[in-house]
Amino acid sequence: MNVMANDLKTLIPDTQRFLDQEKKHFIGGKWIAGSSGDSFSVIDPSNAEVLTQIPAGTAEDIDNAIQAANTALNDPMWRDMPPANRERMMHRFADLIEGHAEELGQLEALDVGMPSFVGQHVEVGNVLDTLRYMAGWPTKLNGKTMNIGEPMPDKRYFAYTQREPVGVVGAIVPWNVPLMIAMWKIAPALATGCTIVIKPSEVTPLATLRLAELALDAGVPPGVVNVINGFGAEAGQALVEHPLVSKISFTGSAVTGKEINRTATDTLKNVTLELGGKSPVILLDDANMEKAVQGISLGIFGNTGQVCVAGSRLYIQAGIFDDAVERLAKEARSLKVGPGLHPETNIGPLVSEAHRDKVMGFINAGLKAGGEAVTGGSAIDGPGFYVEPTVLANPPQSSDVVQEEIFGPVITAIPFDDLDEAAALANDTTYGLSSYIWSRDIQNVHQLVPKIRAGQVYVNSSPFPHPAMPMGGYKQSGIGRDLGEEVINHYTEHKSVVIGIN
Ligand code: NDP
């Protein structure tokens, strides 16, 4: 398989301007140089070239950002902003992002490797939907009056609850869809009156930095949204340890999530963890095969499989196994692999050389364990970090390729006989993030849905995160939820007020 490398789209002037601009941290509404003077390179994964240099944040930089966020939290301009004004401000922010969608899509293509049209339309589309959905919440953050009766003789009370922002939020964001996940954390913070310090992955910081600048342009007060670049072990750790941070919202691997949870315990922070997955896809013999194969392909090969909800374990009813595997392999072979800036690219590179090597390690181990590469199975030569879309038939259920999150364009296929076996195989994992059922039989669907231990079940659909739907995992896929009304609960405290009135 070859990579398409010619005829790249040219960068629009806005993208070029931002790339050329010296990169700093974004603290208190200003670009601030790093305290140490150390920096790291951001690499274009389509050709391994250096895009720009970024300052490596230190504990001192993190402290500066948190102090700015804490000052903004208590500034009457933000604290007392009328809810309707906050709503209008969020809509202005969304409109501004929409006007810069092409620039943001190009930055994501350069940084992450995703096709620029996916960055511009799918990722920025979700960013806009999330911000506009969350803009409806500031005017609806109500408490309740409670009838607590007369708990003491002859003593009457008026009792109510009110909702208040949880405080300064520390957000730690991964590299796979950085802009979208950053907005999943920024939008509820804006809606609830919190302030936020974001640490993007050092691999993909560009679009998040630009987002912070756009927030200021939209009228979000200085210090409400801050971005510190840097490495997890230093900047991330300092954010989780800091006593002025009330909440940590983390998306990333289960290993790091557990470490963050342990650290956050010292200061008893409110923690939300959206961790990895190894999401099962159950394909029943009554499914619409054409739609199922397209949906399954999108669900594993979209964003080169670097998606926490990727449907990476396919369980196929035995009678249609060979036919379904061959159809999926054919679909995989039809996908065009190339740089994110090529207009025909379906599948971009993996995000880094180290990640490409990790994905190849899983594929090779899966082949050694007895899996058959019906299509794919190899890295693609070239300066970029490409791996062929891969379908592995019949690896053992207990093998690493079936059990571990690979985060690459790799799907395993295993047959099953009946619904109980399908549910048992689907649940045979430490994760519980998402799951998929392809069937036209409503009884089969309703029997399976309650049996599956996962935060999301999509029926006859590939994954799409809707801002109204809570997003998170069972088991070791996380704690708490992003999106929906649930995230608003995680970003607010409920205060009980009891007033004696006689
Ligand atoms: P990590 O979980 O290590 O990183 C996610 C974020 O956490 C990054 O911003 C990272 O910074 C930061 N971080 C790392 N260590 C700490 C720490 N001790 N304290 C605070 N923050 C920290 O993911 P990786 O980038 O290493 O990817 C590894 C694997 O994780 C992938 O191959 C994939 O399987 C899975 N993954 C899952 C994601 C999901 O959405 N569920 C998203 C991304 C990865 P830094 O980048 O500097 O390390």
Sheet with most strands: strand arrangement: 14-17-18-13-12-20-21
Strand content: 15-25%
- Which radius of gyration do the C-alpha atoms yield? 24 Å
**Residue share in helix:** 25-40%
Top-tier CATH class of the largest domain: Alpha Beta
Number of extended strands: 24
Q: Distance N terminus to C terminus?
A: 82 Å
Q: Identify low-pLDDT runs.
A: none
* Outline: globular
How is this structure best described in words?
This protein is an alpha/beta fold. It folds into 2 domains: 16-275 and 478-496, Aldehyde Dehydrogenase, Chain A, domain 1 (3-Layer(aba) Sandwich); 279-466, Aldehyde Dehydrogenase, Chain A, domain 2, CATH 3.40.309.10. It is built from 17 helices and 24 strands. Strands 14-17-18-13-12-20-21 form a 7-stranded mixed β-sheet, with helices on both faces. Strands 9-8-7-10-11-23 form a 6-stranded mixed β-sheet, sandwiched between helices. Strand 8 (195-199), helix 8 and strand 9 form a beta-alpha-beta unit. Helix 5 crosses helix 6 and helix 5 packs antiparallel against helix 8 (206-217). 52% of the residues are buried. Residues 172-176, 199, 201-203, 231-233, 236-237, 240, 251-253, 256, 259-260, 275-276, 308, 355, 405, 407 line the site of NADPH dihydro-nicotinamide-adenine-dinucleotide phosphate.
